[in-house]
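User: I'm putting together notes for a lab meeting next week and I want to include a structural view of one of the chains we've been expressing. I don't have a solved structure, so I'd like a prediction I can at least talk through. The sequence is below, exactly as it appears in our construct file.
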Amino acid sequence: MGGLFLLGMLADLLGRHSPLPRVTILLVAGFVIGPSGLDVLPVIIQDWFPILTNIALAMVGFLLGQKLAFSSLKKLGQSVLALSLGEVFMAAVLTGTGLVLLGAPLELALLLAGIAPATAPAATVDVVRELKAKGKFTDTLLDIVAIDDAFGLVLFSLLLAVAHMLSGQGGATEILVTGLWEVSGAILLGLVMGVPMSFLTGRILPGEPTQAEALGWVLLCGGLAVWMEVSYILATIVLGAVVANFATHHRRPFHAIEAIEWPFIILFFLLAGASLHIAALAQVGMLGVAYIGLRSLGLISGAALGGRLSRTDPETCRWMGLALLPQAGVAIGMALIAAQRFPEFEEIILPLVLGSTVVFELIGPFVTRRVLIKVGNVKNK
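Assistant: Thanks for the context. Below is the predicted structure for the 381-residue chain, given as structure tokens.
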């Protein structure tokens, strides 16, 4: 544990003095010490990964929720909605259409089209925090990653149901209901827990929740979401949004989580890197290369289209799609569901999504970093 935390400190230091974001450095370090590299991690540490993922992403979701305060949404609401819908729609359409034209079965193309819009909130948030980026572009980016996975989950559920109908396997209605429950149940849970959290916390230490209070509510929300089989990151995003809007007596309602989040993020990305397998990247082939290219093109063109329709400034239209390239846990979760429902495509879907995730997780944060510097939201860079 001590060694892992010192690796995190080293990644932070290297990130400050190199063009690489610390997320990428942590992933590479995790890969080097993991089973595909030097294999020096005890087996038990790998067993921690699922629970650490839940904890880290629950915190990330809660902190993202504060970006959905009514005051900021009034300024960016229409733009954020149009950009998010644009990139989700175009990433799915271009990926699905392109794969069909390249000869992929229609059902497989639909499944991959549903996975393509998923982003990586943890990586994006950490790049922003590392650079201390501030500005309209950064606010819009964080708002988008807070809501686009909800749109992506709905779209994935719809396309999964369509693929089932086309394959003649049946059960499409059940799949659709399950997918919609994953989104609506998460929103409901966040609302139900957010209201009492807004009014009960920040009373022991006036104006600011203690760490015990903040962690208790956030982790309980994430745990209940896992138990209810709904999206735990979406549930905690809603939880954070409710607190940001209704905890009027709070001065710093998110400070306690911000103060303790980084150690969990270190472990999350190191173990994520350790779980990467270079063999998966080797199996991707031309179909995987096409998926990577089509998804990237879809995000870029979709953000540009959505931005123009909402009359967003040209700079945001031009660069937002590139800033959304990172893709991680949500996409892998979707791939596992798709492989379970369509075992005949398992040997294609899992290596392809895992392999492309390696690319997007290593390159995506670097691109996001360069974009934030390019648009002038980072000082002294």
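A couple of points you could mention at the meeting. The chain has one domain: 2-374. The CA atoms of residues 108 and 344 lie 10 Å apart.

User: Perfect, that's what I needed.
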